[in-house]
Sequence to fold (343 residues):
Amino acid sequence: MSTQEQIKLWARQLGFDDCRIAPARRASHADDYVDWIEDGRHGDMAWLERNPERRSDPRIVLPGCKAVICLAINYYPGDQPAEGMDYRIARYAWNDDYHDLIEKRLKQLCRQLETLGGQHKPYVDTGPVLERDFASDAGLGWNGKSTMQIHRKLGTWFFLAEILTTLPLQADEAFGDHCGKCVACIDACPTAAITAPRRLDARRCISYLTIENKGPIPEEFREAMGNRIYGCDDCLDACPWNRFARTAREASFLARKEIFGHHLRDFLGLDDVAFNKLFQKSPIKRIKRARFLRNVCVALGNVGGPSDLPALEMAAKDPDPLIAEHAHWAIAQIQRKTGPASS
Ligand code: SF4
Ligand code: SF4
Fold:
């Protein structure tokens, strides 16, 4: 068995659904990335501005780096978390934060790599690596017009992780672009955030607006948010390559029942303690109560009715101005659609 085959076998045994190898070189979209940052299309995600060269070249991050081991893990939790829900959450957040689980597996794989010699550096999301470029180079998938990596079997529903290594591994061949004439993801975007194929204006993207954005949701995007309270899957859902997607093997990616089965307005009753308990280990906990309730208020303004007004009126008195302002907006939206509540 070659070294490459041995590593792929270890990856499969650790629960990764795919493992391929890219050469260590400057990322192919490094210049586009710098343009994207200079245009300000990354919004307030200031950490993306730091060290663009390190982010683009694994040889700067790990001197002597020869290869990037690219790994994919399927997280597809299925279609519907529960019947009759009045809110939507991006699928990757239906249960536990994936970072912990993947980091543990990456560290285990690094320990196995150490038996082969060399140095190894694992990354999942957090590291300075333009990971989609390396995944494309490795033939794991290709950079779709949505800007997301598309896998020929897993479609859009997978997490990417990498290990930079000084081992001189034989690289796999790229798979090429298989979007063809399709523009389904661009057409599906409710806020026209994909401004051209493979061009995302994060400031218009509901994922960014509901998760990364710390301030108010700009009014021009509030109605387009619909009932999404954390992230958005529309450009992923639209991709025809999802026809091969299968439910994840990993139980901790499947819908956690405590997060579903509520009414939107129930979330407005969460104080900090209850919020942290409900979203324990969930990625949603990261945005904290104020941003989450901000999102809930917008969703209620879009899909709520008169029965939601008492909860919104309480939220409008919240000492946190972010929650209060969005609650006032939601009340006005509902009253505009249904007329003022009778006293
Ligand atoms: S996540 Fe939603 S808002 Fe963002 S680009 Fe995709 S479809 Fe558009
Ligand atoms: S929806 Fe179509 S254009 Fe968009 S990433 Fe998928 S195949 Fe490519």
Summary: Residues 3-83+92-165 form one domain. The pocket of iron/sulfur cluster (ligand 1) is lined by residues 188-191, 193-194, 200, 205-207, 232, 234-235 (CB under 6 Å).
